[in-house]
Fold this protein.
Amino acid sequence: MAVDNNTDKTVPNAVKLVGDSIIPGSSLLIDGQLLAGAGHFLVGGLARTALGPLGFALVAANSYVRSTTGQGILKHLKKAAPAKQEAKPEAKAEEPAAAK
């Protein structure tokens, strides 16, 4: 009985996760996205200074998600949020014209 656990990506993703928990952007650097990885590294340092560990964690999470899925974390959150549907004004029923 064959079980497909997608193990071919498990170890690389684990390495990326550990790397991003230490240095944000490292997963993108591993993928060869040098500009995006360097940007996450710089923004991670600024976020840690401005917002503390929470800012650092958010930038690291975005780096990991972008590396593994190709999209940033905000795009995933927008997909998960229910779309707002604007209420359409109901059409008024026209009164029948008076018979002559």
